[in-house]
Amino acid sequence: MQNLPDVSPDRGYIRPARRGKHKVFIGMSPGVGKTYKMLEEGHSLKKEGTDVVIGLLETHNRQETIAKAVGLEQVPRQKITWSGVTLTEMDTPAIIARQPQLVLVDELAHTNVPGSEREKRYQDVEVILAAGIDVFSTVNIQHLESLNDLVARITGIVVRERVPDRLLDEADEVVVVDVTPETLEERLRDGKIYAPEKIDQSLQNFFQRRNLIALRELALRELADQVEEGAIENGNHSTNEAPYCNVHERVLVCVSTYPNAIQLVRRGARISGYMHAPFYCLFVDNPDRFLNKSESLHIETCERLCQEFGGQFVRVADHNKARAIADVAKDYRITQIVIGESQQSRWKILLRGSLTQQLLQSLKNIDVHIIAAEKV
């Protein structure tokens, strides 16, 4: 039986079978070029025959942005009177009535004028998406809810307008519009971001070099998270085993009852520190062998040291150490493994192969660090 569209009489439009697709342009701060990039892509799609309109554009009197909007249809804003003052907001019902294929919406985190049907602009965007219309939108990294406290610590500024992280999680595509802090400062000094009277104050506050560097790193990390999570999600839905796609480094130290395990934990912690990477330690128990008191205390010392370095201690039981390490590496999406030099006799290595050899054969796209130590 054919699925018929759902007619919504209170809205006067037909609810489509599919939800619109959402593409978010995100940047480290105002002035990086998110809106310009969105308009540029809107023009390209229009040339290809897509019906594109501007739902809401905030130019901040930036001449390059104003010029880039020329040639794209703009849906007139609705007027809202509040406290005797008439203000304007995006006209969501008019956009839905117009039924374009794609609508461009600036400043996703904006708070609507009191008296509007919805409190936040991102809520208007969700209504547009539900109507089957694709949306391009823009937002700055400091407006993400989960980063609010971190951004306040970095910049000393509490961002009041925020959007839930799920908007990026649910977006069909996230594009980071990136420029260097030096380029952004140059744009600011040239008057391309704010009016001349605001330039010096901006450079001394939000646009300080250290702030821009930290915010840029946050924006790039957010993109890396999106890439990695998307690859994992696609792998989970694939019938074939997906290869690793780990953007972030993760360090795993394999400890044993040998005394050099303490050295390995320290070396692994240093490596993770250099890489700004999560840190894990793994001990594989032999199910057929109980640890004596001295060995148990040694493993407890390794666990305590791992936790002191901010790491997570993992303990599993398996007869096959190489298999256990490989399984944990896969589960925790490890990119770097630290192990000690084999302390088996030469004959055992010749007969059965070393743990290192077994790991190198079973692990793909993972670097293995072999730390030399004196045999005891």
Give a brief outline of the structure.
With 376 residues, the protein is of the alpha/beta class. Helices cover 41% and strands 19% of the residues. The longest helix is centred in the middle third of the chain and has 28 residues, at 209-236.
Overview of the molecule:
The chain is of the alpha/beta class and 376 residues long. It folds into two domains: 6-236, Rossmann fold (3-Layer(aba) Sandwich); 251-371, 3-Layer(aba) Sandwich (Rossmann fold). It has helices spanning 34-47, 63-69, 92-98, 121-130, 148-155, 166-170, 181-189, 196-204, 209-236, 261-275, 293-308, 321-331, 346-352, 355-362; strands at 6-8, 13-15, 22-27, 52-56, 73-74, 78-82, 85-89, 102-105, 134-140, 173-176, 251-255, 279-285, 312-317, 336-340, 367-371. The strands form four sheets. The protein has a six-stranded parallel sheet with strand order 5-4-8-9-3-10, sandwiched between helices. Helix 10 packs parallel to helix 11. The longest helix is centred in the middle third of the chain and has 28 residues, at 209-236. The radius of gyration is 28 Å and the shape is elongated.
